[in-house]
Amino acid sequence: MKKNLIVLLAIFSVTLGNAQSLMFRDPNNGNTNLNNQHLYFYLPPTNQITGFPTIHAYYVNVLNQSADSLHYKIKTETIQLVQGSSIQFCQNCGGGQCYIGNLSGTFTLFAAADCEWDWQFKVGTGTIFGTSVVRYTAYDIANTNDSATMYMHYIVTPAGIDAINTTPAFLSEPVPNPATTTV
């Protein structure tokens, strides 16, 4: 009995030791937990008349769920990128620094929900239709296993449909009619 209790306590302590401190959450949707979520955005292509790309921004908070302060970074991994599209992410508080590469600067999160950093994940669409997929990961610098990951799928698709051809169909007479020779 003692042996079973010791094993259960060991498992419990390992489970507590591996708890994730960081969480991505959606401030515009009831602070929904976005960890390990796939978000899909259907976007129009670059405006063919003005040449201006469509810029889509999505706001996300990074929250420290632990009792200790920590230092973290955000890393992006472009899994798939449509030609002509661009990806960047910007910190909205503490200076508003934007990052085009795949690694942010170092940020401090204070004890549990004492401070949360507001991020803006952006995509600029090109003229080519397709899907860009980006994985965003926030991780504790002191413990890279303590991380939060989310995926964004940016789908560039036409915003409308082409004009419908209203010309009536024409059917010709069957040829030859009547058949005069045998085949």
Write the layout of secondary structure elements.
Elements: H1 2-17, E1 22-26, E2 32-33, E3 38-43, E4 55-64, E5 70-80, E6 86-91, E7 98-99, E8 107-109, E9 116-124, E10 130-140, E11 143-156
Parallel strand pairs: 3-11
Antiparallel strand pairs: 1-2, 1-4, 4-9, 5-8, 5-10, 6-7, 6-9, 10-11
Written description of the protein model:
- The protein is mostly beta strands.
- The protein has one helix spanning 2-17; strands at residues 22-26, 32-33, 38-43, 55-64, 70-80, 86-91, 98-99, 107-109, 116-124, 130-140, 143-156.
- The strands form two sheets. It has a six-stranded antiparallel sheet, with no helix packed on it. It has a five-stranded mixed sheet with strand order 3-11-10-5-8, with no helix packed on it.
- A hairpin with a 2-residue loop joins strand 10 and strand 11 (143-156).
- It is elongated, with a radius of gyration of 27 Å.
- The model is unreliable at 3-17 (pLDDT under 50).
